[in-house]
Structure formats: structure tokens, C-alpha cells
Amino acid sequence: MHILGLHPIALPSQKRGINFENRCLLQHKHNLSVYKVIRFIRIIAAVRKAFLIWALVFPMTNVIMLNQGADFIRNCKPQKTAIVYHKGCGDGISAAAILIRTFEKYFGERPAKIIYANPGKLDLVRIPAFYEYIIFTDLAADQNLKEVLRWSKRSKIAVFDHHKIANNLNEYRILHVHPDLFQKELEGSRYCGAKLTFDICSLVVDISHLDWLAGVGIINDVGGMSWKKFLDKIYNNYSELSKSKKIYDFSSQLGSIASLFSAGKDKVGGERLALEIALEAGSPKELLDCSGKAAILCKHKKIREDEIKYYTSDWRNKAEKYGNLIIYEIAPKNEIISAVSTEISMQIKDKTVVVLRTNNNSMKVSYRNQNAKVDCNKLALQLAQEFNGIGGGHRQAAGGLISENKREEFKKRLRELVK
Questions:
Q1: pLDDT at 6 over 70
Q2: Per-residue CA distances from 228 to 6, 36, 55, 143, 232 (Å)
Q3: Residue 128: CA count within 13 A, CB half-sphere
Q4: SS3 state at 158
Q5: 114 to each of 133, 136, 273, how far by Cα in Å?
Q6: Could you give the CA distance from residue 177 to residue 197 in angstroms, rounded to a whole number?
Q7: What DSSP line would sit under 282-300, residue for residue?
Q8: Quick count: other Cβ atoms within 10 Å of Cβ 149?
Q9: What mean pLDDT comes out for the span 110-114?
Q10: Above 80 in pLDDT, residue 55?
Q11: Among the four 9, 115, 180, 399, which has the fewest Cβ within 10 Å?
Q12: d(CA 317, CA 305)
């Protein structure tokens, strides 16, 4: 594996026996210049080995780790590369679009395989052995360690993600680029997948014209207040985005585009369509005008927004309230529990909001606490473990899936954990 863009040096000892260097030192001890060169090579090799071991495990500077991601992309073969991104997520779709468009500009072609997947469900994903390179973007592949390690035996893997780390894949010699591993200024949840992918890809080739896609991801993951300077630059470049009064939250024009991307999750073929319009859009105006292919998703976006409004306008009279905990059961036609929980939680940032939706024999759960007084990721993981489900995400936002027949038991345990 070539880490940090460094390639193994074939030292004499590697070619002609372990004692070759020592013999050289003895033979040339009277030739000071040769002696110094050999000693210098040995010292550099030892230092480099120690640095590589350190770099795999401990936090790095953003320049080093982001460059690792850029080097990985440069070394890919598009025809043998698979990209896997976060399904139905405005941030995940934006991140995938940035990555694919980077391939197009740098290599002149797209990656051969593009796959969308749900967090925690990589066991359902099939990636043929033909693909020598796999890149996960805005997807916590480290949650499925077994599958990732199996793929790593025959493919080179890189993970560009910002969800709570379950396993540091660098410890398994898999490139894992995560904000918590190279910076401390922002919590990982606020350094969204699209911005992370944008920063990596910007080191590969000039993609400054795609900054607005990174902005969509930032707004989608409620990171606007953390990236004001970056967003201000975007708003200066695209006048069509400056119409909103609240430019740093989901009610902004960038939030409207994020909602458009997410609208694809409820429509047959919508997921692929959402990614396609993100790939083809020359500017955000094309999406805001609902022109071309975007018109199809715009109609469905309006249906989703009406349903979201229905469930968020009167939630105070319908939800269960237990001190700092809000439990709200809804039965929407569309996949909107994430949007509903986010909107409600922005109204009561100091409380934990849990929205439930029963679908067949399972119950989807969306956790929110905008002030992070309760760690939603830990809460989701604990409840998933106790009720044999799945769960995870960020401190402020997480999701899960629990068996429907355990609803009342789940709600009781939830009240015990959030007081």
C-alpha cells in the first residue's frame, strides 16, 4: 500500500541479504562520503517507517490526510472503480456528484460503478471483484467492518466520511479520511460529506465551480453556521441563491436544492434521477428553476413539503412530551421522518426529538438534539443493540430501525435513557 504518495524504496538489504548494508559500511568506513550516504539512507528509511506507522493510527494535519484522499483518486482506474454513497441524502448525493464530476474532469470519464446504500446495511451491497478501487463517500463504511475487510482483500478502499467513527479503518491499512482524525475546530457532524469530498477533490483538479454542491451538503446537514465564510463566497458567486432571508439554514435556496435531491428517495427511479440532475447541472439556477429533468423531482418535492408541513404545523398537540424528551409517531406516505424531526428540533434545540414511523413489521426512528446535550449517535447505537436493530449517525442527528412489535418497550426504555 502506498501511503502519503510515498513508494517503497528498494534498499540494498532488501535485494541482496540482510547484512549487505553492514558489509557496505565496513567496506567503505574509510571512504567518508560513501559511508555517510549509506548511513543517511538507513536513517531515512527508519524515520519513514516510523512515520507511516504513526500516520495510520494518530490524527494528522488536514493537508496530509486530504492529500492522501487526493492521491487515492489520482491512482484510480475509472473503468475499475466503484463509488458507494449515502442513499436518499442531500449531502450524500452532493458528495457523490462532486466525486464523479472530479473523475470526469481529471480522467475524462466517470467511475464504472455507482452504488447507493443505507448506513449500516453494506451487507446488502454487492461489489464484484472486478473493481480494484472502491470509494465510500458520506457513508460510514466502518460500521460494517466485516464487509469492508472482506472487500479490502481484493480491492483498494478509501472512505471519505464524517459520521461518528465506529472503527478507525486506518488501523486496518484502509484509507479513512474523517474530520475527527485531522482537525479539532469542528465536530465531525458539521464537516459534512460533500464539503469533505470537495476539499479532497480540489487537490486533484480545479473544481471551484462545484462549490455550490458542497454548500448543498452543508445546509442539508445543518452546518450553515459553521461555514459562513465558505457559504458567503458561494452566495456572492450565484445571485440566484441570495433570495432567502435565512441563508444559513434549511429554508435557504441551497436547502431547497437539498430537499430536491432528497425527494428522489420516494419515487421509483428517483434516486438515480436525483444524482443525474446533480451531475448535469451547470449552476444551481437550473435546479431552482425546475427545468429539464429537475421538473420531475420538483413536483414530488412539493408533495413531500406539503406532507412535512402537515406533520410539523401541529406537532405540539400531537406529540408525547416527557420533560426534555419529545416522542412523535407519524404515518406519512413519503419518507419524511428525518425532515420532520429536524424541523421540530430546530424549534426546540435544547430537547431531544424522536420521530417514529411504522412500515410493515419495522419501525424507523429519527433522533435529534441540536444542542447535543444528548448524544443521538450513542442513544441510537445503544437502543439498536438492546432491541436487536440498527442505528447510528451524529451527536445531533441519528437514525435507527427497530422491530415494530417492540414499540412500547422501546418507548419505555427511551424515556428511561432521556430524562
A1: no
A2: 36, 53, 31, 31, 6
A3: 8
A4: strand
A5: 12, 10, 13
A6: 9
A7: SSHHHHHTT-TTHHHHHHH
A8: 14
A9: 98
A10: no
A11: 9
A12: 20
Is residue 179 within 8 Å of 227, Cβ to Cβ? no
Among residues 53, 55, 66, 49, the alpha carbon closest in space to that of 158 is found at 66
φ, ψ at 134 (rounded to 5°): -130, 130
pLDDT digits (tens, 9 = 90+) for 128-150: 999 999 999 999 999 999 999 99
Single-letter residue type at 274: A
- Per DSSP, the chain holds a count of helices (H) and strands (E) of 18, 11
| CA atoms of 187 and 185, how far apart (whole Å) | 7
Place of cell 434545540: 349
Cell triple for 34: 560513501
Q: N- to C-terminal Cα distance for the chain? A: 48
**Alpha helices of 108-250 — where are they, by DSSP H?**
145-152, 179-182, 193-201, 211-220, 228-237
Reported pTM: 0.78
Distance CA 348, CA 264 (A): 28
